[in-house]
């Protein structure tokens, strides 16, 4: 691919990119690349015309997808961008469209750390979600200390480092896992607890859920909606303590019935919570498809009514 003049500038300028008329998807991609360079992704380059696999603008620290269409962007387009990143989890993800975003797409972007932008036909750019606003509002990097440059050598530009996550995403479930670990260690040895068949086995059974919570919290990289699943796992852990405490089974049939009812309710609630939370990974039946105009339930941001060329 021939290098165009759009891709030759590598240094972020203090002023936003000059206005341009967006009349094709190629111009939309070059416009997005220029804005990314302005935001500190100094090596951002548009890759028009190729098999991008969900990526139209590439940088060492970010990947960008650009849509030149009239239909609202739905969750599937964002899922393709997320999948195109592969194992390069340190790269930021930026999505650009000239139309709008469906509500499900905005929710998916928030859960997976994707910055959403809407561009105007005059080349302007608007941030849609909080992550996009943080990127757009980040201060320009300080200039690198000047040093004598040898002929043919250009000083490297400063790199903007924008931290968008100030705390560990999975720390909540790690804390819950540690709390349940303490419960699993101390409860079976309590004087009011008669572990059956033995304390060691009961402790191991009660450690399964906290182990899952801690491992998933350590592996988590994004702030996803997790509280329904976490609550569901907590409700799974309760029947283990009930059913392995022989003292709870000493009594008449009424007490056993109460225990069995509570156990069934806990397991049913846990299953429903976990299934409800996992719905976010599937494309809802009402997901907007390419070619359909944005309707009720979609987040409208500057719909210019352009046609779909991608």
Summarize the structure.
It is built from 8 helices and 8 strands, in the order αβββαββαββαααααβ. The radius of gyration is 26 Å and the shape is elongated.
How would you describe the overall organization of this protein?
The protein is 39% helix and 9% strand. Mean pLDDT is 74; it is low at 1-5, 7-12, 146-165 and 280-309. Helix 6 (199-219) packs antiparallel against helix 7 (227-243). The chain contains eight helices and eight strands. 34% of the residues are buried. With 310 residues, it is α/β, with parallel strands linked by helices. It has two domains: 5-142, Trna Endonuclease, Chain: A, domain 1, CATH 3.40.1350; 171-220 and 225-281, no CATH class. The chain is elongated, with a radius of gyration of 26 Å. Helix 2 links the parallel strand 3 and strand 4 (92-97). Strands 1-2-3-4-6-7 form a six-stranded mixed β-sheet, with helices on both faces. A two-stranded antiparallel ribbon has the order 5-8.
């Amino acid at each position: 691919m021939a290098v165009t003049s759009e891709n030759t500038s590598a240094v972020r300028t203090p002023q936003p990119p000059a206005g341009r008329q967006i009349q094709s998807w190629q111009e939309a991609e070059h416009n997005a690349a220029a804005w990314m360079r302005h935001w500190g992704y100094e090596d951002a380059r548009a890759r028009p015309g190729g098999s991008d696999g969900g990526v139209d603008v590439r940088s060492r620290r970010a990947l960008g997808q650009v849509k030149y269409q009239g239909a609202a962007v739905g969750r599937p387009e964002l899922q393709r961008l997320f999948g195109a990143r592969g194992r390069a989890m340190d790269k930021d993800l930026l999505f650009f469209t000239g139309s709008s975003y469906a509500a499900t797409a905005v929710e998916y972007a928030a859960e997976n750390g994707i910055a959403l932008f809407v561009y105007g036909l005059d080349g302007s750019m608007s941030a849609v979600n909080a992550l996009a606003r943080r990127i757009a509002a980040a201060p320009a990097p300080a200039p690198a200390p000047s040093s004598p440059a040898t002929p043919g050598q250009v000083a490297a530009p400063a790199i903007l480092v924008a931290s968008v996550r100030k705390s560990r995403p999975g720390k909540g479930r790690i804390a819950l896992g540690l709390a349940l670990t303490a419960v699993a260690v101390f409860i079976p040895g309590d004087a009011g607890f008669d572990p059956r068949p033995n304390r060691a086995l009961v402790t191991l059974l009660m450690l399964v859920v906290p182990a899952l919570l801690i491992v998933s919290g350590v592996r988590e990289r994004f702030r996803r909606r997790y509280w329904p699943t976490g609550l569901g796992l907590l409700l799974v852990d309760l029947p283990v303590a009930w059913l392995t405490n022989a003292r709870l089974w000493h009594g008449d049939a009424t007490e056993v019935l109460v225990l069995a009812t509570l156990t069934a309710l806990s397991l049913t609630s846990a299953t429903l919570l976990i299934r409800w939370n996992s719905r976010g990974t599937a494309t809802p039946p009402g997901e907007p498809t390419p070619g359909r105009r944005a309707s009720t339930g979609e987040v409208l941001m500057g719909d210019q009514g352009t046609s779909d060329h991608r």
